Amino acid sequence: MERTDLIVPAEVVPRLVIPPLAITTGAEDPEWVEVPLGRWRFQRTPSLRLPMDSASAKAVRRWMRYAPWSPVPIVVALGAWVVGSLVDLSGAAFQVLLVVVAATAVSSLLRGQGLPDQTPDRSRSGDLRVPRVPLTVAMDWVAGNPGVSISDDPAPRPYSRRFSTTWAVALLVAAIGLGWTLTADHRENPVLLWQLDIALFVGGLVMAYKIQPPAAGTD
Predict the structure, then answer these.
(1) Distances from the Cα of 53 to the Cαs of 20, 70, 150, 154, in angstroms?
(2) Which of 16, 129, 153, 185 has a 20 to 30 Å separation from 34 between CA atoms?
(3) pLDDT of 56-89, one tens digit each?
């Protein structure tokens, strides 16, 4: 199925006329569901009511139900981080801390997982981009909404690929260097330095994840 991205200018959003066709599959009997305008794990508003197939609509409703609880692991990890900084942890306790921080890192990498590809992204100017909409559905949107357009170009990145690459390399090199230094001196180093090493490594992984190219516009 040929797909494209829909571009909806900010001024068109309040008066948007949405055809009753699923933006996920093009089906003519869609379910209407409130979809968050973005993929942050805790975000439920703002949202836009969109037609989707039943499976996608179910996934969105599940997301909206659990989204408010998604910051809890981050709060727990920060609490563990503070405790680790103030208390001299044993080997087992420190391993637990590492697991908690690693779980938080994985959670950040999985931001938006579980939502359909067609979840709209809102730019800083308020424009909406609805990715990977069936071309026939997209053309109906364009026909019914002057100002709406389609695009097969990759979505613009918040930061350039060079920016992400530079920071990923710098953070990972710093993490490896600090870890090697802490291990090589054969001394009992402060826990805070090990936590800093973990933070540098996790930050490098997150920035490396952002380097990946956007999805193609066709199946």
Answers:
(1) 11, 25, 21, 25
(2) 153
(3) 999 888 888 776 666 666 676 667 666 666 666 5
